[in-house]
Amino acid sequence: MIELGVNIDHVATLRQQRLTAYPDPVRAAVLAEEAGADLITLHLREDRRHIQDADVAAIRAKLRTRMNLECAVTAEMLELACKARPQDVCLVPEKREELTTEGGLDVAGRFDSVRDAVNRLHDAGIRVSLFIDPDARQIEAASRSGATVIELHTGAYADAAGPDAQAELERVRTGVVEGIRHGLRVNAGHGLHYENVAAIAALPGIAELNIGHAIIARAVFDGLEKAVRDMKALMVAAAAPA
Ligand SMILES: CC(=O)[C@@H](O)[C@H](O)COP(=O)(O)O
Ligand SMILES: NCC(=O)COP(=O)(O)O
């Protein structure tokens, strides 16, 4: 069955905006699990704009499902990830000045450093996913790097309108087929919300969707548990039979 990873970064964004102790991303992670999240995703950014190092340890200790820790390919982050020992690490690109993650990791262009990072994380017993654009060259490089999972960046699909959205959906569909052809587990995420998720969840072979901003935004009005349950129900209803 298709899995939902709930990204709780933006609970921490709200906390960091005032440097208060609330809202607590650990509580958010626990509530999301209780509402049907299959895993919890969090992004420890180099600038620590939302998730903090202490959150990673606290959430790791509490989770009953699994943790998908997103981080950049840097010595500091790899060290922290190996120490935290999440079940999954998703390597992502990062720019300090960006509003949100722009595009996928350039695995083909940074091949040696990505392959070394994958090896190091595998040696620590951590499964590795690479957050990449739905692009045949990047998928091939991801497969050569030794990673067993890719997460296709759906931001371009989410931002597109009209016929462009259909073209971006086709890019993701082709990416899923290509990833599976390389023997990879194929996940997707970024910018997915209650109106655009069904078409992605319906792609045959897609394993997991990681969704944060839209769920946390919906939670303001509906509560986190309902926001998670409703997203999961949309995904499951749309998903192609295995
Ligand atoms: C890699 C990714 O898509 C998410 O981690 C997302 O980046 C989280 O939100 P911000 O980009 O606002 O940190
Ligand atoms: N990897 C994508 C993710 O975790 C969530 O992205 P978003 O839904 O917050 O855009």
Strand order of the largest sheet: 1-2-3-4-5-6-7-8
CATH class: Alpha Beta
Bound molecules: 1-deoxy-D-xylulose-5-phosphate, ligand LD2JLWAY
Backbone structural class: alpha/beta
Instruction: State the CATH superfamily name.
Output: Aldolase class I
Terminal Cα separation, in Å? 7 Å
The structural domain count equals 1
Could you tell me the CATH topology label. Answer: TIM Barrel
Order of helices and strands: EHHEHEHEHEHEHHEHEHH
Low-confidence spans: pLDDT under 50, at least 5 residues? none
Instruction: Characterize the main sheet.
Output: 8 strands, parallel, barrel
Kindly report the average pLDDT value.
97
| Count of alpha/pi helices | 11
Shape: globular
Radius of gyration: 17 Å
DSSP strand tally? 8
Specify the helix fraction band. 40-55%
Beta-strand share of residues: 15-25%
Query: Architecture, CATH level 2?
Result: Alpha-Beta Barrel
Family: Belongs to the PNP synthase family.
Binding site for 3-amino-2-oxopropyl phosphate: 7, 18, 191, 212-213
Site (Transition state stabilizer): 151
GO molecular function, one term: pyridoxine 5'-phosphate synthase activity
